[in-house]
Write a structure and sequence with these properties.
Elements: H1 14-30, H2 33-42, H3 47-55, H4 74-86, H5 94-108, H6 111-123, E1 128-131, E2 147-151, E3 154-165, E4 172-178, E5 188-194, E6 201-206, E7 217-228, H7 240-276, E8 278-279, E9 282-283, H8 288-316, H9 322-345, H10 357-365, H11 375-384
Parallel strand pairs: 1-4
Antiparallel strand pairs: 2-3, 3-7, 4-5, 6-7, 8-9
Helix pairs in contact: 1-4, 4-7, 5-6, 5-7, 7-8, 7-9, 7-10, 8-9, 9-10, 9-11
The structure holds flavin-adenine dinucleotide.
Residues 129-133, 138-139, 163-165, 209, 212, 217, 367, 370-374, 376-377, 380 line the site of flavin-adenine dinucleotide (FAD).
């Protein structure tokens, strides 16, 4: 099996290398390709797999040990992200659960909220989702119409969300809602809805997508859903936009890491294929065109990893700014799509067959230029950093 990267990332140490090994072993032994194929067909990962991941200690990797987590840091999440990608599991909403949703509660929640929800996220008793996007507002988050109106000792939530990852599975949904519709960005709050027995909460369709078939992506409906006041993350209204803005650079870095894993996987698969496939009496690898194209792909892969590693280090140092994270997401997602397309071409007709993982990568990568902020929105954020 080809390995496009001869050495590990510089931030890996011996403890992380052991962890990386154990994650790779766990995924390959407990999730064989037939199981993934079944999930793709079903359009959802079976719930049991979440519990298995929790038993293997891989849920709540960076949640503090005080709440039952593994007490790791973002490097552990990065290792898991790469391994999920290499295993063909990109789209399984584990990074969203682990590295996006749980941190909203751990960083911005009250102590009572941490104790109430984090142990359940670590044990897999609860799966998390975050619901920002609505049918009428995606890029323009301030345009959301979902409201959470104060009522007695709690809130009443009304609205509709769409494209929500883990939407069919989630027991805990962080809902982005307006607690003060007249206050613009200062009127937005993050409120937890525990879906079990939540009157007025309904899941819509598991949406039929171009790729990323193992991910359940859903519409969610909130019709007079009542939640207690202490479901408001941090228990102070109007903090939602600030909390989202603080966390979105990490979300974009996560997508860049997913893109890097897809690039790595594509090049590895392609080199393996072209050295055994024959045409005109020689290996496909022996054509100069193949070598030149793959040389270009490898060069970009190495540059990409260097940039991603730098962003990971900046994140760990608390220095990852919005523009840099946006550049990582923009560049990685655009280059990944180009590299995977180039690689697929070298498989000839086999690359177009679903049984070849390169075709899945080709479908799955398209979304990376759209979700977590589109390429156009990334460019706006980057452009802002050009002027003081
Ligand atoms: C598979 C999948 C999973 C998702 N998971 C989640 C999730 O878990 N939670 C969640 O909340 N959301 C999720 N999303 C939603 C995703 O983040 C949005 O689709 C994305 O932010 C774009 O919003 P939109 O679809 O409304 O497009 P729009 O905002 O309507 O954009 C349409 C087009 O206009 C462009 N555009 C918009 N504004 C500007 C501008 N100012 N300048 C230039 N061009 C602009 C966009 O770049 C795009 O090309 C998911 C989406 C998908 C498809």
């Amino acid at each position: 099996m080809t390995e496009v990267f001869a050495t590990a990332s510089r931030w890996m140490d011996s403890e992380l290398a052991m962890f990386d090994d154990s994650v790779a072993r766990h995924l390959s032994s407990s999730i064989p390709p037939e199981r993934i194929a079944q999930w793709r067909e079903n359009g959802i990962v079976e719930r049991k797999a979440w519990s298995e991941l929790a038993e293997a200690g891989l849920l709540g990797l960076s949640v503090s040990e005080n709440y039952g987590g593994a007490g790791g840091d973002f490097r552990h999440e990065a290792v898991l992200l790469r391994r999920l990608g290499l295993a063909g599991l990109d789209g399984w909403g584990v990074p969203l659960h682990n590295a996006i949703c749980a941190p909203y509660i751990e960083k911005y929640g009250t102590e009572e909220q941490r104790q109430r929800w984090l142990p359940k996220l670590v044990s897999g008793e609860m799966v998390a989702a975050i619901a920002m996007t609505e049918p009428g507002a995606g890029s323009d988050l301030q345009g959301i119409r979902t409201t959470a109106r104060s009522h007695g000792n709690g809130y009443v939530i009304n609205g509709q969300k769409t494209f929500i990852s883990n939407g069919q599975t989630a027991d805990l949904v962080i809902v982005v809602a307006k607690t003060d519709p007249d206050a613009g960005s200062k009127g937005i709050s993050l409120i937890v809805v525990e879906t079990v027995d939540a009157g007025g909460f309904k899941r819509g369709r598991n949406l039929d997508k171009l790729g990323l078939e193992i991910a359940d992506t859903s519409e969610l409906f909130f019709d007079d859903v009542k939640v207690p006041a202490d479901n408001l993350i941090g228990c102070v209204e109007g903090q939602g936009m600030y909390q989202l803005m603080r966390e979105l650079p990490k979300e974009r870095l996560i997508i860049a890491i997913e893109c890097l894993a897809a690039i790595e996987s594509a090049i590895n698969q392609t080199v393996d294929y072209v050295i055994q496939r024959k045409a005109f009496g020689q290996r496909v690898f022996d054509f100069q065109n193949t070598q030149f194209k793959l040389a270009e792909c490898k060069t970009e892969a190495v540059i990409a990893r260097s940039f991603v590693d730098d962003c990971i280090q900046r994140y760990l140092n608390g220095e990852l700014d919005s523009a840099t994270a946006s550049m990582a997401k923009l560049w990685l997602s655009e280059r990944a799509q180009h590299i995977i397309d180039t690689c697929l071409q070298m498989f000839g007709g086999y690359g177009y067959m679903n049984e070849y993982p390169i075709s899945q990568l080709y479908k799955d990568i398209r979304i990376k230029r759209i979700y977590g902020g589109t390429s156009e929105i990334m460019k706006l954020l980057i452009a802002r950093s050009l002027v003081g």
